[in-house]
Amino acid sequence: MTEHLRVEGVTRVYPPVERHAAVHALGPIDLALKQGEFFSVVGPSGCGKSTLLDVVAGLARPTAGTIHFEGKPVAGEVPDGVGVVFQEDASFPWLTVYDNAAFALRRAGVADAEVRERVASTLAFTGLASFAQAYPAQLSGGMRQRLCIARTLVMRPRMLLLDEPFGALDQQTRLLMGDELLKLWRETGATILLITHSLDEAALLSDRIGVMSARPGVFIDLVETGWARERDSRIVSQAAFGEVTGRLWSALRDQSIKALAMAS
Amino acid sequence: MPAPDAEPLVAAERIERRDHARSLDTALLIVGLIVLWQAGAFILGKDALPSPVATVSKLAAIMGDEDFPRHAWETARAFFTALAISLAAGLVIGLALGAHRLAGEVTEPILAALYAIPKITLYPVILLLFGLGISAKIAFGVIHGIIPVILFTMNAVRNIRAVYLRSARAMRLTLAQTAGTIIIPAALPEIVSGFRIGFALTLLGTLIGEMFASQRGIGYMLVKAMETGDTGTVMSLALLLVVLATAASAALLALDRRLRRHATS
Amino acid sequence: MTRAGLIRLALILGALALLEWACRYGFVSREAVIPPTVMLQGAWRALALEETRGEILWTLQNVALSLVLSLIVGSAAGLLLHKATRLRRALDPLLASYYAVPTFVFYPLFIVLFGLNRWPLIAIGFLFAVVAVIINTLDGLARIPRAFVRTAAVMRLTPAQYAVHIILPAAAPWLFTGAKFAVAYSFIGVIAGEFVVSGAGMGHAIAFAYNSFDNRMMYGLIVLLFAIVGSINMLFWSFERRLYARAGR
User: Fold this and answer.
1) Residue numbers in A near C152 (CB within 8 A)
2) Residue A20: what are its φ and ψ, rounded to 5°?
3) Which pLDDT tens digit goes with each residue over A162-215?
4) A161: which chain B residues are within 8 Å (Cβ-Cβ)?
5) Which of C100, C106, C226 lies nearest to residue B117, judging by beta carbons?
6) Does A155 touch chain C if contact means CB atoms closer than 8 Å?
7) What is the pTM of this model?
8) Which superfamily does C61-95+106-247 belong to?
9) How many Å apart are CA B241 and CA B218, to the nearest integer?
């Protein structure tokens, strides 16, 4: 299968600032994602997970190394076909749900009729159809993140990058949103790169999981879950699930202790 | 495109070094402004805009004059009285209005409206009520300065996080204890912001009052110079006021910042 | 109207009634304060006389010019400063202390520069108002969540699209606050100037009435000024309510 995303030797070093030394935040990272793969990255705080996402998305330049998306190099701008959902709520409070979802399409000059059709189907798909005329302030946190996802989906991304998108939600909502993410993944066939600090979430949702070390973050383990494509949150009851999370934590525990020591 | 922030290395040290760098930049900027001033003086001529050097030497001459201490004392007397009233009365009224929800809600739009109105239009009214002399000046300073103190104090009390007050009740503190140990410290940063603005406005009000209501004081010297076209004196006095006001404001700002460093919300 | 609104109305009417009574029955000297009803008569007369109407209009034109200039220059300067980080940081303490400086001392300078007409007044109003606009513009721009900036990058918006469709609506509440200050400060700067150095305008008319012991006209003009500033404020306030309601603040 063709490599959808190829990351080679990527490092990110923050230059020295006001007499402080340079910070080696990330890398070197090597990663190859197949088309339609669901890949998660877990790691201790400050290891550079978000930096990795920024670099892959084209929001930041790597200090060394290359990134190729669909065979073309990524540098300095976000490539066509890539969607990103951030940890913070990025919904625009001055627009309705409908206008939020339609925003990017309208700016790209898409025809009105097509905008209406795509927004309507995406809102229906994400369960927001009945809230189309509401404002984000009237929605719960989970709904707002769904709106951010809808806004990204409406552009039909071929690769979806998510940076701890469910971080602000409670556990039950997270599990349900995970199911929705899986449904979305199956129906769009997009490649997904998910950054999360929740081992359960990574183990449950992914085909493969990359475990990152403490700063500077490099991959110290790559775990294959082998789940069937048609999966949902009920696999948490399987024994294999416990084995995956166990393996993740045994790789991660020492790194987390190290990261904690670095922060204090 | 923007990248995430660098790691939070030794945060306090970073802040301190950054502050030093910024002070230097600000000093450079001030030097730049002085250079611009000199250029303006050159272009417009010394009758329109005296040069920095001429202004400073004229100021030295004015301050050395035997009449000056009398004027300075007059202004200082009026200003500090007005300031004391603005801050004390403003604080008490602000605390009361902040604590009593309904009273605060009723009065806030009135205060906001008074804040926006050019109080200079009340000057004739003040003169009619207080006559010429120092009480009119003090009154003028107070009406300028008291309103922001009230508004900021009121807001500060209202914005105290409910969880603090709940903790006070859980600890069974009396009203006095709550006010002294929780309300005032929690509200202090914002109250000090109000004091800063109250200070600046009281000074402004006192000076304006002096320009019209008095035969003594720095404001009077200013208006006399303005009327006789003595731009040299106008600029020198203006420089004096700018330096004093900026120094006081900077000191209060530093105090404000120090207090906010301890505040969490 | 809310309960607080009713109490407020009662309070104001009560205070006016008290003043009316105190003036008419001699508790307050007629030479100092006149009864509110007579003030209203004065206001009416000021509107009726062509000369005073002209002065009022002249003042409003000055204020409008000061307002427009300070909004345009202030927003542009705020936008530029937002990008020029080092300059902005150096400028911060000076901006914070700006309103401690008595800017009206520059009247004579402006008279020399512009002549004895409306422009020194507009210049002072401008100087007063522009810094408030700059400070609020900077505030609004600084508070744009980083997630919006990155979303714009992901959507591949052009800088113009980013400015119009994201910066403007996101910073709107602060731009609005800046506009409110610009109105108030323009009024203060212009009218204070008219008091002191001008031979025309509302400020001058008030000073003239004072010097001529024409209390009725003086208070009438003051009442008119209050009414004008008050109505503008109320307009802003109701507009602000609608703006904030949508954003859910």
Assistant:
1) none
2) -100, 150
3) 999 888 788 888 888 888 889 889 988 999 999 998 898 999 999 999 999 988
4) none
5) C226
6) yes
7) 0.78
8) MetI-like (1.10.3720.10)
9) 9
